[in-house]
Amino acid sequence: MAEYKIRDLEVLSGIKAHTIRIWEKRYTLFSPERTDTQIRTYSDDDLTRCINISILNRCGFKISKIATMSDREIHDHVMECNGKNAEDVAIERLIVALIEMDERLFHDTLNDLIQSVGLTLTFTDKLIPFLDRIGIMWLVGTINPAQEHFMSNLIRQKVISETDRLPIPQKKTVDALLFLPEHEQHEISLLFYNFMLRDKGFSTVYLGQSVPYDALCLCIEKLKPQTMITSWLTAVDENFMQSYFMRLTKESAKIPVLAGGIQINSRKDLVKDYIHEISDLPAQVGALIS
Q: Global pTM?
């Protein structure tokens, strides 16, 4: 059973801790357990209920009315509200889908967003904030590996599916070679980079996760890409990171390397002489190959 502090509920639901306490006292909406030191702890069910109440409240339901509803009634009203305000409550729907491992809800939420605003805005405006919000769940250990794989694979499938809809550029040259180093398994960002470039008509070759360095060099020699794209999320030794990009720059005839991810963002001073930090990727690739 997961345990959340009231601050966790605040971050995940968007409802202020002070408001949660008032609702708890005045309307008995939640019944948290308490530790020996009287600190409130909440369950997955409490978190789901809190998020659903947040959705209804934002859709215009008064809290006094919500307090009279059963969990079934709250759920039914949330489903109606979701249909009318899909974009506004998308992040909350994704969090509930993750907690309950509800593939249909996760799938339908992503589909609604993509049909409404496209994959690029779905990723930048919804999925990234969603991943930021649930970061607290990783920190407090309330997401288990099965839930993480469930979420990652559904997002991964959707990005691949949207990429597959795009035409394959009829270019003989490779504008960008996309890869992850041997220690890196997290490929959602790289898949999205590939989608963005293909969507703008660039020719790409996608190597994916955990590419051995020697194999990467053979691909570079064979394909002669105009640029290389990578993403580093997994923590590595600083000296390893610096020496990796130093060596890659030297042995790839100084083909430009564009890199993103939290490890690049937090250690940019170590590698700034060897990479271009990703910001507006299509524009950056366009400028480098022009």
A: 0.80
Q: What is the pLDDT of residues 118-139, one digit of tens each?
A: 999 998 888 888 887 776 676 6
Question: What residues form DSSP beta bridges with 228?
Answer: 177, 257
d(CA 83, CA 78): 9
Query: In this structure, what are the phi and psi dihedrals at residue 165, rounded to the nearest 5 degrees?
Result: -75, -20
Measure the CA dihedral 162/164/187/143, to 10°: 50
Q: Among 35, 64, 85, which residue terminates a domain? A: 85
End-to-end CA distance of the chain: 55
Based on the fold, state whether residues 3 and 98 are members of the same structural domain. Answer: no
Instruction: Give, in order, the Cα–Cα distances in Å from 197 to each of 67, 233, 264, 278, 282.
Output: 48, 21, 20, 13, 6
Q: What is the DSSP letter of 87?
A: T
Of 116, 110, 88, nearest to 98 by C-alpha is 110
